[in-house]
Amino acid sequence: MSNETNRRDFLGYTFAAVAAVGGAASLVGMKKAWDPLPSVLSSGFTEFDLSAVKAGHPSTIMWRGKPVFILKKTADMQPNKRDLIINGDRYTIAIGLCTHLGCIPAWKKTKWKCPCHGGEFNASGEEIFGPPPRPLDLPPFSISGTKIVLGEEGPEYKKIAAAMKA
Ligand code: FES
Fold it and tell me: Of 74, 69, 114, 110, whose CA–CA distance to 92 is shortest?
């Protein structure tokens, strides 16, 4: 009788252990399936060190398949409500797609000029000539020290976005 009980207990514990291992393995599998792919994670956020930017020479970085212009303004460029100010330096951050029909404007000394229909944007990304109906769009970003992280809405982004709407 006691041998029978021990045998049943043993079988019960064995089944419980197998079920626990199987359950844990299933959870790990499900988590892997739900987590975003590494390619999605890397395309969602793009980090860029602003201290590497030379004043007057915009950098173009790719974020989620779109060009983003980052211009450190020179002293003679007009301040603007959409300037990102870090350590006293002013930056223009803008999605580099013309707001008319989406061509990529090129930097011409002091402004961006669109090759498609001649639209122009000043160093602050504001439309100053031609058919573009509005300024270059602002990408969501956050700031960490001198680094900009494209893809997340930090307080600096929210402040500039609100100023642009006002
Ligand atoms: S697409 Fe830029 S002016 Fe038309």
Answer: 69
